[in-house]
Amino acid sequence: MVRREKQDKPACGNGTLRAAGVAAGVVRSFPPLADAGARMLILGSMPGVASLAAGRYYAHSRNAFWSLLGALLGFAADAPYAERTAALRAAGIALWDVLHACTREGSLDAAIERGSEVANDLPGFLAAHPRIAHVFFNGAAAEACFRRHVLPQLDAGALHFARLPSTSPANAASSFERKLAVWRAALSPLLADDAKMPPRQEEDA
Hints:
The chain is α/β, with parallel strands linked by helices.
């Protein structure tokens, strides 16, 4: 069962909002950030304009992702990108996005044209990373896209899913403190040294 937070509404793919001054175009996500021994996966929907321009996950200056993960893992939010990503890898955390490509104006998930959505190969990724047992959605849009494109083709019996408050600055209804409390409650129990945890066992068909 997927646990849901109430702060942000599923917005992926309704295509109703337009970002002024930014033409619609096809955007593509990054390769996954993951080590072979990753134990949990955090999924966004599609990187925003600032992230795509920088070639880095969560590059918008007001996105709370790195501040939240820094508070949980003990690194500075403004540390060099390589240090931040290394800290995630060391903690067994993988990053990716549900969508491989889509047409979108600006950065808002609500501006994604649903008919243009192409999902990443998450079933293949999870098969290649058998220690991942927990999948966290960074906001409602990521969860909605996952349910629409990935879940129908995934044997999810051994996986645990949870939606967390979006770290996007668009999710202004939720304070940083509230986001941190929810993210901490979800991730902290999994951040103990459980490197000996065996790969997940898929249920028999």
